[in-house]
Amino acid sequence: MTVLYYRIADITFKIIGDDEIMNAESALLNEYAVPPSDPDYTVIFEEADELSEPVGECIFTSSDRMVYSVPDGEIRYSGDLSDEYRSADMRMYRRGRELCVQTVFKGNFKRIGARAILNCLGIEHIMAENESFILHASYIRYGDEAVLFTAPSGVGKSTQARLWCENRGAELINGDRAAIVNKNGVFWAYGVPFAGSSGVCKNESYPIKAIVCLAQAKENTAVRLKGITAFRKLWEGCTADVWNKSDMESCIKTVSSVSAQVPVFHLGCLPDETAVETLENEFNKLKI
Q1: Please, what is the end-to-end C-alpha distance for the chain in angstroms?
Q2: Which of the 8 DSSP states describes residue 78?
Q3: Are the beta carbons of 103 and 15 closer than 8 angstroms?
Q4: Does 278 lie in the same domain as 175?
Q5: What does the pLDDT read at residue 285?
Q6: Do residues 277 and 207 share a domain?
Q7: Of the candidates 118, 135, 210, which has an alpha carbon nearest to the alpha carbon of residue 176?
Q8: Cα separations in angstroms, 36 against 6, 48, 158
Q9: Domain boundary residue, one of 91, 121, 151
Q10: 22 versus 273: which is more confidently predicted?
């Protein structure tokens, strides 16, 4: 039996599975590995010839996911759902803080790797359950603080993060996502093991200096956002399980708190150092 422990955004996971199917080595997760300790959540993997049938009420469907609500938790099927649950490759049954995963291997490679483990954690639900959330953002360390650049794909999150690294000595912590966590009344950004196309997902955390909502523009403009405007821009980058009412309520509450406590900016920007200068001027005003 293989037993692995990971700590992500101050939450400890215990992963259990037969030696024959578990892939213990993963560059994506190695930074998050910790010694055995009391887990907050436990995930148990087992191989199956076919997945168990659905039970409960179907509350969400998409091309790669089906979700059923049951009295003691939730059941998810994931993978190719062209023939509904029968063509899925994983069935995840969450009961409280334990998750039992059945997997059907459809090829010759019969190992559960890092991506499968991460897919099964349901990190959005776990963050919401712990009054935190995942933000789609490029996350840099600037000095001893975090700056998060959020925007729809293709707008320029990676470009602005790179400009700060090249011109202001910042460090890229994650090119795709950050966990936002309330730590003793201060919101911190935590690295998570989801790298996106950048391949960068460092296990580091810093208090958040600012969250910057990006838009492409013909000239650089930076505006401090407040109130419902700040909330709406952050909500656009928040990931949550939309079928789970309690998760949505938790995320709304946390995003509201972040938008009230953390400086949020709208940056219309060019893809060059002048955008850095414009935003830096706004950061300097925060010190006054």
Answers
A1: 57
A2: E
A3: no
A4: yes
A5: 87
A6: yes
A7: 135
A8: 9, 27, 36
A9: 121
A10: 273
Q: What are the CA-CA distances from residue 127 to residues 8, 113, 117, 133, 263 (Å)?
A: 10, 22, 16, 5, 22
Say yes or no: 145 and 236 in one domain.
yes
Q: What is the DSSP string of 96-126?
A: TTEEEEEE---SS---B-HHHHHHHH-HHHH
**Beta strand residue intervals within the chain, DSSP E:** 2-8, 11-17, 41-47, 57-61, 65-70, 73-78, 82-85, 90-95, 98-103, 133-142, 145-150, 171-174, 177-183, 186-190, 205-216, 221-225, 238-239, 264-269
- Nearest Cα neighbor of 223 from 264, 194, 163, 178 is 264
Q: What is the C-alpha separation between 143 and 150, in angstroms, rounded? A: 19
More confident residue, 23 or 5: 5
**Is the domain of 84 the same as that of 193?**
no
* 200-205 CB contacts, 8 Å cutoff, 24+ apart: 200/172, 200/173, 200/174, 200/175, 201/28, 201/31, 201/174, 201/175, 201/176, 202/31, 202/172, 202/173, 202/174, 203/31, 203/32, 204/141, 204/173, 205/9, 205/146, 205/181
CATH number where 192 lies: 3.90.228.20
Looking at the structure, do residues 171 and 67 belong to the same domain, yes or no? no
Can you give the residue range of the structural domain that contains 244? 133-285
The answer on pLDDT for 26 being more than 70 is no
Which residues on adjacent β-strands are paired with residue 47?
103
d(CA 212, CA 273): 16
233-249 residue pLDDT tens: 999 999 999 999 999 99
